[in-house]
Amino acid sequence: MVLGVPDNAECLNSSGTETVTYQSDRPVSVAEGRSVPYLELRHVSRSFGSNHVLEDVNFKVMSGQTVCILGRSGVGKSVCLRILMGFLKPDAGRVIAAGEDTTDYSEEELRRIRQKVTMVFQNGALFDSLTVWDNVAFPLRERGALDEERISPVVDELLEMVGAKHIGGLLPSQISTGMKRSVAIARALAAKPKAVLFDEPTTMVDPLMARRLGALIEKLKLQLKLTSVVVTHDMRLAEKLADHVVFLDRGKVIFCGTPAEMNRSRERIVQQFLQLDRLDLRALVGTIDHPHRMLG
Ligand SMILES: Nc1ncnc2c1ncn2[C@@H]1O[C@H](COP(=O)(O)OP(=O)(O)O)[C@@H](O)[C@H]1O
Ligand SMILES: [Mg+2]
Q1: Residues 15 and 134 grouped into a single domain
Q2: Phi and psi dihedrals of 272, rounded to 5?
Q3: Cβ distance 168 to 149 under 8 Å?
Q4: Residue 293 has pLDDT above 50, yes or no
Q5: How wide is the angle at C-alpha 246 spanned by C-alphas 242 and 248, nearest 5°?
Q6: CA–centroid distance, residue 261 to ligand 2 (Å)
Q7: Are 96 and 258 a contacting pair, CB within 8 Å?
Q8: What is the pLDDT of residues 171-221, one digit of tens each?
Q9: What is the pTM of this model?
Q10: Which listed site, 187, 211, 252, 263, has its alpha carbon 20 to 30 Å from 233?
Q11: Residue 276: what pLDDT?
């Protein structure tokens, strides 16, 4: 329970004057009526040449919470994740990951952070030449902390958790996009992270698989108390998972709040997203009730 923190605490006020000291492994403090964010972008800007992708972007994710980042294609959602992971440096602003200011961290320091904060890429980024089982075992073997006898039950359990135990012997090329994502999630969890960043987990999969992946991410949040950031343009997924939604448009956070607040938002882009989603839903319900409409 976070005491005395308003609902929209994940959105930094515009003055950004709040001062919080970040220390590694410091317990979340509520003594001063606020807690330390686990992940945060603070006044972050990033350009590629003349393409000003992010301009003074602020949001934070508290421990155990899920924040969904929404916005049009090309708006900078993946760039936000890559900045949080330290794969990209911001031109200005500060980056907090695992409760530490990682902005100026070296590769070596970032590797330590990436044991706690990991990312599931849109394409899964599995090793093509390894079976599903060996892909999930990879982070465990790489670390060298466990012998093969101990690795085996951990891998089995992870595959079971994501509903992929039956495909352990297959190669990534032999399984569907949705299953690749599930396996990528299992592999990410093998490193026992505290936070996982998901890049469009339900894009390019069928609606049933999308729902399964959404349920899986929700399960991880509830059972493992994972902190997560989910980049998506799937409004239903955001409504299901998000404690807070961050809406990006033209380089800025144009909305930040709970899904309920998002539904009431008067921002034009947010409204457009919501309306499109309702149309989608109506079309879908229509085809279920009246399958012949699919042909019309
Ligand atoms: N490494 C890069 N070099 C140049 N431009 C990039 C790079 N990464 C991203 N961009 C640009 O930044 C913008 C945002 O990209 P991205 O974050 O991938 O969008 P999305 O919101 O769809 O995830 C795009 O215009 C993209 O072309
Ligand atoms: Mg992207």
Answers
A1: no
A2: -60, -45
A3: no
A4: no
A5: 145
A6: 24
A7: no
A8: 999 998 889 999 999 999 988 899 999 999 988 888 888 888 899 899 888
A9: 0.83
A10: 187
A11: 79
94 and 3 in a common domain: yes
pLDDT digits (tens, 9 = 90+) for 57-87: 999 999 999 999 999 889 999 999 999 999 9
Ligand 1 neighbours (beta carbon < 6 A): 48, 51, 53, 71, 73-79
**Model confidence pLDDT, tens digit, residues 87-131:** 999 999 999 999 999 999 999 999 999 999 999 987 768 999 999
Ligand 1 atom having least distance to the Cα of 76: 17
CA geometry: angle 282, 285, 288, nearest 5 deg: 150
| Residues 3, 110 within the same domain | yes
Nearest CA to ligand 1 atom 4: 48
Q: What are 86's two structure tokens?
A: 């330290």
What is the extent of the structural domain holding 185? 125-192
| Residue position matching structure tokens 């919080």 | 20
Token pair in block for residue 183: 């396996």
Give, using CA atoms, the residue closest to atom 24 of ligand 1.
74
Residue nearest to atom 3 of ligand 1 (CA): 48
β-pairing, 92-97 vs 100-101, is antiparallel
The DSSP output letter for 27 is P
Ion ligand 2: protein residues whose beta carbon lies under 5 Å = 78
Contact 232, 199 (CB under 8 A): no
